[in-house]
Amino acid sequence: MMRSLWTAASGMTSQQTNVDIISNNLANINTTGYKKESAQFKSLLYQTIQDQSYDNNGNPKPSGIQVGLGVKNSAITSQYTEGTLSETGSDYDLAIDGKGFFMVQTADGGTAYTRNGSFQMAVGENGMVLATSDGNPVLDTNGQPIILDKSYNTSNIIIDESGNLCYPDANNNAKPIGIQIGVAQFNNPTGLSKAADSLLTETDASGSPLLETTGTTVGKYKIKQGFLEGSNVQAVDEMVNLIVAQRAYEMNSKIVKAADEMMQQANNLR
Question: The domain containing residue 249 runs over which residues?
Answer without folding.
Answer: 2-80+233-267
